[in-house]
Every structure is written in structure tokens, then in C-alpha cells.
Amino acid sequence: MPRNKPPDIALMTSPDDAEAQFYEALQRGDIDKLMAVWSDDDEICCVHPHGPRVVGPAAIRAAFDAMFSNGVIDARPEKVRRVVSHGSAVHSVVERIQVMTDEGPQVAWVIATNVYLKTSLGWRLVAHHASPGSSQELPEVGETPSVLH
């Protein structure tokens, strides 16, 4: 049976809409808004840096609830690479995360892959896989186009 989405969640008409709502929910510590971005499918999965694979809406909610118990997550996408094809999208993201330490605010970097599917309810997140990153992630390694247009 589908779970009801909170009424204040905007329709996600693109993968970018879904991603924006995902990061906004992290920054606000809003578990209901965060879970509204996820698909209701039992096979959705999430991996946090150095963490196990978490599968299913209830387990993912519990994992983010535990993270929010320490406060909001000030994660902001710095670099996004997108591959979109018909009803699916894969975003490779460099996340800049502001964390408070005994020495004051520090920046941590995370490399994440977000996978979105187009559903009858709009675009939904079906996988989030995050790995530790570093400030060296910011310069991108890529091919230089061989032909100028």
C-alpha cells in the first residue's frame, strides 16, 4: 500500500526538483520532507560514508532519523554531473558539508551518486550512495573536447 506524502511537498517534475528537495530536507532536518523525495519501493537503498547498505523506506528513515538526532545536515551540492535518459537519471555530486567541531566549523567533502526514477507521482530518489571525499575532489578530471563548435 502506498504511503501518504505530506501535503506541503511540491510536485517533483524533474530530477533536479527532487534533488533540490532532498538537500533542502537535509539542511532543515525535515525527515517527512526527506522521505517524500524517496520512492515508496521496498528495494530503495542508501549507503552513507563508511556505513552499511540500508534497504527499504523504514530502514532509510531510521538511518536519517539517527543522523538528525545530532542536528541538521548542512550538505550542499558543489558539483553535479547528470545523465538523464527517459524515465531515469543519475547524478554524481560533490557534497560540501559544514560540520561543527571543538575547533569550530569545518568543511567535509562527500562524493555521492543519486539515482532518480520518474513515477506517476513525479521524480523520486531510489538510491543514494555516498563515499568520503576530500578538498582534492573539487578540480575535476575530464576530457577536453577535441572539436570546438
How would you describe this protein?
The chain is an alpha+beta fold. Strand 3 (74-85) and strand 4 form a beta hairpin. It has a single domain, classed as Nuclear Transport Factor 2, Chain: A (Roll). The mean pLDDT is 89. The protein contains 3 helices and 6 strands; from the N terminus they run ααββαββββ.
Summarize the structure.
With 149 residues, this protein is α+β, with helices and mostly antiparallel strands. The chain has three helices and six strands, in the order ααββαββββ.
Structure characteristics:
149 residues; alpha+beta; Nuclear Transport Factor 2, Chain: A; six-stranded mixed sheet; 3 helices; 6 strands; 22% helix; globular
C-alpha end-to-end distance: 51 Å
How many beta-strand elements? 6
Count of individual domains: 1
Shape label: globular
CATH architecture: Roll
**Alpha-beta classification:** alpha+beta
Main β-sheet, spatial strand arrangement: 2-1-6-5-4-3
Largest sheet: 6 strands, mixed
Radius of gyration: 16 Å
Percentage of residues in helical conformation: 10-25%
The number of helices is 3
In what range is the share of β-strand residues?
35-45%
CATH fold assignment: Nuclear Transport Factor 2, Chain: A
CATH class: Alpha Beta
Low-pLDDT ranges? none
User: Average pLDDT across residues?
Assistant: 89
N-to-C SSE string, H for helix and E for strand: HHEEHEEEE
